[in-house]
Amino acid sequence: MADPDRTEDWLREGLAGAVPDPPGTPERAAAARGRARRARRRTTIMAAAGVVATLAVVGVVSTSLRDGSGRDETATAPTSPFDAPGCPEKPVDARTQVGPDHIPDGAVSVRLCSRDADSIYLPADALINHVDSVAAVVNGLPPADPKRVCSLELAAGYQLAFAYPDGSSVVAEGGLHGCREVVVNGVERVGADAPWERFRELLREQRASLDPPAEVDASEIDCASTARGPGTPSVDRPEDLVAAVVCYEFEYEQWSQVEIPDRDLELLVADLAGRPSGPRVMLSCAVVDAPARKVVGYSAWGGRIEFSTACESLATLPGATWSREVLDTLQRLSNEAARVR
Hints:
Layout: H1 4-18, H2 28-38, H3 45-58, E1 109-114, H4 131-139, E2 157-163, E3 169-175, E4 181-184, E5 187-190, H5 193-208, E6 241-251, E7 254-259, H6 262-273, E8 284-285, E9 292-299, E10 304-308, E11 311-313, H7 324-339
Antiparallel strand pairs: 1-2, 2-3, 3-4, 4-5, 6-7, 6-9, 8-11, 9-10
Helix pairs in contact: 4-5
């Protein structure tokens, strides 16, 4: 049997080696975003999106439970967020799995995966720092009441795949709807928003000390929705846009589009970043038979960002509506998109 102290030292050293040096100045992340907005490399969005598919197939980990079976003793801690084990080939049915009723400590990475097809935008990078913090949030959720009554709306769900040095993995499945259940090996808890938000927070912090993997080109953006369309959950936020287009739906799922120029994009991002945080309620939307308009773009990390421009009053909080200048800009670009179809 391996000496537990030595194993713990080995794991600590491996994790320490995976943590990048902190940026020299707090402005490093902002500078990286600025470079992404100004430059246009030949690397396309399709290549960035291909990273996700490659990781999902080549980097797939065993979904064996941490009960001593199916382990790969040659597995090691990842050295970068892109080297971490990928998602399972297909979503794991967490309700039928057998194993510990919690996420064990010691995972070397956690990756955001789909619970069902196209329900969420997946980042290409995994979390390799503070992984146990996400596990602790899952484990700390209260148990589900067997007599609970939940709403039945259809909405997105996610899976967090925790990978371990021995090659095994454990999946926590969360639903961003109804009673917000989180399931680990058949054991149900409630509070799916908490692990989701903790993962997003830590992944964004991890990115702040790294350079984006590729810059994106707005000419490669496709308006056709790849998931549930505007409102699809994503690690990336609207204010993370570095390249975007305005899309105009002239017939069902038939889109024309125009690129948002750099100056207009900077105006839009500044307006989004300046809004107060908190829930937003659509107060004044276009009628249902009006042409759909939306903004589709990508972050510097290759994450797809999509939101509607049809609803002009977006908030329950003061200062959270579009500025007059942004409204005029979006209308002008929508008109341009309508003319190019």
